[in-house]
Design a protein that fits this description.
With 377 residues, the protein is α/β, with parallel strands linked by helices. The chain has 18 helices and 8 strands. α12 packs across α13, α15 packs parallel to α17 and α17 packs antiparallel against α18. Bound molecules: tyrosine.
């Protein structure tokens, strides 16, 4: 709710009028209600954003660096956010960091990343592309229940394609000139590293320039005025905003998503300390399903809002049902069902359901047998 106010900065009546007028902005209302956004940049842009969304469908992007050969559950929040924009009728771009993967984003890290070989980067890019396309396809086939033609296809681009043709001297001379050292040094990702014993390499220090240039490129190519990213991306997003303000007359806007943590304060998405992967070879579909089934009662409502497409009203109904029969773990089942479908499709879900039914039945007949043996039938 706090964010809804922040995002809109308009009176309730103006908002309601706009809400009725525009289909596109409807989605933003829903996303804010769900606690989907942590921050926006510039932080006073609420009414400008609303105006743009009211006027016409917008273009939004988020990037994924190929740091591993699969995305993980932690990446799902950004992916689901992109899908919400797609459902709202907007143009969506998922960017693969085939070039930025060579540099390494220092955000949220305490040490430099180990440089990856080009074959590894290429392989990771292919795997991540496959993860994304599978999720987008599963969403369209099994979760979006309306006319498929209403969903504009999500573009998947690789930033390697535009850096390939850029001359490095030209790049430093043309683009580098727009970055001020003072501002770059103030970024949280730099501050947290620069005074540490290990420090930070120039390579990682320069990362913000590349993410900024990506946005400028996508703005020119696709009129992409929105960028979304994880909670640690504000530094890179604001750097992009600055580059674009200096070099074009267009306004652009960044939105970051909340950091999801468990009750114990750990980053969400780990099981016994290991990442839960989207690739079925790294985490089995059943492992992913079980990960969500194990969600604590105290955390499940928030996760339903952030990670599923149930409306807020439907989530209230799910939670109501839960209060009556907590032992059935109904919200956990809704969460696990929808996310397993999104990541692995409907087939494996049907297998789990059959398996669970069979195991419940065999448990029941075991209990029955034991009762009969002990004379309690
Ligand atoms: N830096 C982002 C990934 C990214 C890469 C390139 C971009 O243009 C945008 C985002 C991250 O690590 O999550």
């Amino acid at each position: 709710m706090k964010l809804l106010k922040q995002i809109l900065c308009v009176s309730k009546t103006t908002w309601l009028q706009s809400y009725k007028r525009s289909y596109a902005s409807r989605n933003i209302l829903k996303l804010s209600e769900r606690g989907m956004y942590q921050d926006m940049f510039p932080n006073t842009a609420g009414s400008e954003i609303l105006d743009l969304l009211n006027k016409a469908p917008q273009c939004v992007y988020a990037g994924f660096d190929p740091t591993a050969n699969s995305l993980h559950v932690g990446n799902l929040l950004v992916i689901i956010n992109l899908l919400h924009w797609q459902r709202g009728g907007h143009d969506v771009i998922a960017l693969l960091g085939g070039a930025t993967g060579y540099i390494g984003d220092p955000s949220g890290r305490s040490t430099d990343r180990i440089a990856l070989h080009s074959e590894v980067i290429q392989d990771n890019v292919n795997c991540i592309k496959n993860n994304l396309e599978t999720v987008f396809e599963n969403h369209k086939k099994y979760i979006w229940r309306k006319d498929e033609s209403k969903l504009k296809p999500i573009k998947v681009v690789n930033n390697e394609s535009w850096y390939r043709g850029i001359d490095s001297i030209q790049f430093v001379s043309d683009i580098g000139r727009n970055f001020r050292m003072g501002t770059m040094l103030l970024k949280q990702s730099v501050q947290s590293r620069i005074n540490s014993e290990i420090g930070m390499s120039f390579t990682e220090f320069a990362y913000q320039i590349f993410q900024s240039y990506d946005w400028l490129h996508l703005l020119k190519e696709y009129n992409c005025r929105f960028q979304i990213g994880g909670s640690d991306q504000m530094g890179n997003i604001s750097a992009g905003h600055e580059l674009i303000s200096r070099t074009t007359k267009k306004s652009v806007y960044g939105l970051t998503l909340p950091l999801v943590t468990t009750e114990e304060g750990d980053k969400f998405g780990k099981s016994a300390g290991n990442a839960v992967w989207l690739d079925a070879k790294k985490t089995s579909p059943y492992g992913l399903y079980q990960f969500f089934i194990r969600t604590k009662d105290s955390e499940v409502e928030n996760l339903l809002k952030l990670f599923t497409f149930y409306s807020v009203g439907e989530i209230q109904d799910i939670m109501f049902k839960h209060k009556q029969h907590p032992e059935q773990r109904y919200p956990q089942t809704c969460l696990a069902d929808q996310l397993t479908t999104l990541v692995h499709g409907i087939k494996c879900l049907n297998i789990f359901r059959r398996g669970i039914r069979a195991s419940n039945e065999s448990n029941r007949s075991d209990i029955q047998q034991r009762r009969e043996v002990s004379g309690h039938a």
